[in-house]
Amino acid sequence: MEIIMSVAIGFLFMAAVYLMLSKSLIRIIIGSGLLSHGAHLLLLTMGGLGGNSPPVVAEGVSVSDYADPLPQALILTAIVISFAVTSFFLVLAYRSYQELGTDNMDLLRGTEDYE
Amino acid sequence: MSFVFLIFLPLLAALFIPLLFKKVGKIHTGWFVLTVPVILFIYYASLLPTTIDGGNLVSEFQWIPSLDIAFVAYIDGLSLLFTLLITGIGALVVLYSIFYLDKHREQLHNFYVYLLMFMTAMLGIVQSDHLITLYLFWELTSISSFLLIGYWYTRDRSRFGALKSMMITVFGGLMMLGGFVLLSIMGNTYSIRELITLAPEMATHDFFIWALVLVLLGAFTKSAQFPFYIWLPDAMEAPTPVSAYLHSATMVKAGLYLVARLTPVFAISGTWMWLVAGVGLFTMFWGSFFALKQKDLKGILAFSTVSQLGLIMSLLGASAAGYHVDNIAETTFKYAGFAAIFHLINHAVFKGSLFMIAGIIDHETGTRDIRKLGGLMSLMPVSFTVAMIGAFSMAGLPPFGGFLSKEMFLTAMLSLTEFDLFSMDVWGVLFPVVAWLGSVFTFIYSFYFVFHTFAGKHKPEQLPKPAHEAPIGMLISPVFLAILVIVIFFIPNLVGDWLVKPAVMAIQPFLYSSPAEVDIHVSAWHGFNTELFMTLGIFAVGGLMFWTLHRWQKSYDRFPDAISLNALYDNLMFLSDGGANRFSMLYMTGFIRSYLVYMFSFMIFILLGTMYLTEAFALDLTNLAPVGFYEIVILVALVGSTMTILVSKSRLTAIIALGAVGYSVALFFVIFRAPDLALTQLVIETISVALFLLAFYHLPQMSRKEERMGFRLGNALVAVGVGVTMTLIALSSHSQKALPSISEFYKETVYSEAGGGNIVNVILVDYRGFDTLFEIAVLGITAIGIITMIKLRLSKKEDQHENK
């Protein structure tokens, strides 16, 4: 399973990077969303996908049976942070579109040095 | 007493200068500043009896003990001489500046802060026994010189001159640092005193010649030797007190100090002697020759300073000959070291007074252009007298101090013809010839300076201001220096015993163990010998050429400006500046995509490279979780929705597909026994999709029309690269565990230590509670950012453009 997951993670990363390199602002934001999904699954796979029981202490379950709690704790943090990033991006895109009238990254090049 | 701290007294005083300038506006800030060099001069003068007997004093203060870096103030004859020059001339220059700089119009707080900073730096250079702190102070003088030259920063020429001096002297400083590092590697110490004792062993080391050349580069750039002298004429844009202080009496002598101080280390080498004496003498000739081309009074003095520094440098080079001859007291080789120090004192005194006169003329007539000046003798009699004394001393006329040291200079140069090492017996004859030629031109420009300013016809219509004598306060310092010029002529042996001989002992410790052994008696009359005839020749030829100056001075204009050293510097600056700019514009395209491509490519390179180097590629097939039916179904959904995002042309489809990816991930969490994650992911994903849809209302259609095929292919290549890299990392990290996981600790102690059952939750809120707290803080900051963004209205657009 881990090998299949590794390939899927690579695929997610690939799609995310491809989207982030495009010119449209909204595709970049979607790409960053995909990137965080890929990262979460990577963390999970790194710790191993084994374990027969969720990491909650229960009667009659030995320590080795629990799923690895550490990647889960990391992912939980990451999910929340990636949510914050995505929402900030969205507002940024919305406002910059409102002010500048474009979402084409090529037209958002900053100072006059480049003209 | 721990006099090492006195080095920092000027810097400490500088802290109060802006306050005094702002609060006590009625009194010229210079009066407060004046106390600092005066106090220091009196204190250091009290150390004289120690060094006259050949003693020395050391005071130490640890700075970075772990790196063996300390402030070590070492006072011997040489450093005390320089210290007295710095504080003594410093006091006179500050006094002069009080009348030169107007307290209402000038930014005195800046000026005096820089000046005091310089004073600390200069004292640090001449007293440091530690190479690294010496370097530190060395660069500090470059910086304060930069600030002082650019003091009138609204003028283009000031900024240009400041930058030029900075570029050249800091370049030299860095070279010197390299030399110091090599020295410390060879001797395994930073202490100059210890290096001197190790000198004979170091001479055979491979690095020796490199260290020698690098250290000399530092000294030559600082002391404006050929071909680095070009910064000094441009540095004349500084206020005149600065020129008198930094660019004639002290800072430019730092290079001489360094050469003198390190002579015992390097004297053994013939390269040293040839380089120092040769470059110095050539600079002396070159500077004096081109001084006559100058039209600006300070320009003449700048070239004259270059020339005189070259003279002293060549004497220091010649003093290394003393290392190679036996029984020096019997020979004429003994004069070079003495003459170097003696002329250094003379030069500081007469050049200081000449600069102050140039400043007075500028101040009282409004111009420094020698073509507009003339006939000021009767209008400014005191200034004329001072200028004449200074210039005659420079020309080497009796009865002024310069005559004595000039005679000794000729003696020392003549002695080199008798030196039979390092092919001196063949080429040595050039030394007296070039020295004589340089002296002739020195004689001419000295007269040119005085008589074209003060004699001749007065041209009041060309002067911006009606000329008159300077106020008495401004004359105190130059008059004092002029008196000193004459006094030195009459008591040269007192000066010799007090100041020169202790310093000579420091330069030539291989010859003398106490100042009393320096067996030199200075006298104005030596009988009819070669030196006297050379001097008479200088007077005769120089006088004749000065008389006919108007006929041949114009031929200087035939030297083309396009192939001068200045043009070389300008082109070099232009090329490096423009070239660097063009190079960075080549890759700094302004497209975010370009930067992302660089980052991703580099990431691939670094990660795969590291994995290759550490042989981390691994695939472990034993410890795998079983592949189940549900997993495959979810996987298909995940990949399918990702594909949909990639190909979809409608943003609504893309957003829904992104939601589908999120929910598939949540289902993965369910299958892999992570209930908390699944719950969080579901909630967050729902809110995200809602947010996307909200923003969707405001955002334009996704458009891919303008994306060309090549553009997309390049993107795809980078994307595949990242994907493959991540897959390899995922496989590798799963397949090998370098360290046992700390998860076991959490699993075992969660109930006993933290009293909780849900391990993930306990980790987040208990074991890693602070992380979670900061995470909440991040969320809070994001929320504030979002609110600000929504509220922000850039209605003041026009104003912002005006500010640019």
Kindly name the structural category of chain B: mainly alpha
Helix content of chain A: 55-70%
Rg measurement of chain B, Å: 37 Å
Number of helices, counting only DSSP H or I runs of 4 residues or more of chain B? 34
Q: What kind of assembly state do the chains in view correspond to? A: heterodimer
Report the mean per-residue pLDDT of chain A as an integer: 85
Query: How many DSSP helices of chain A?
Result: 3
Strand order of the largest sheet of chain B: 1-2
Please indicate the percent range of residues of chain A in DSSP E strands (runs of 2 or more): under 5%
Q: Which segments of chain B are poorly predicted (pLDDT under 50) over 5 or more consecutive residues?
A: 798-804
Largest interface: A-B, 88 and 102 residues
Spatial shape of chain B: elongated
What's the helical proportion of residues of chain B? over 70%
Taking the sheet with the most strands of chain B, its summary is: 2 strands, antiparallel
How would you state the average pLDDT of chain B, rounded?
88
Outline the low-pLDDT stretches of chain A.
Answer: none
CA-CA gap between termini of chain A:
52 Å
Rg of Cα set of chain A: 20 Å
- What is the N-to-C succession of helices and strands of chain A? HHH
First CA to last CA of chain B: what distance? Answer: 55 Å
Structural class of chain A: mainly alpha
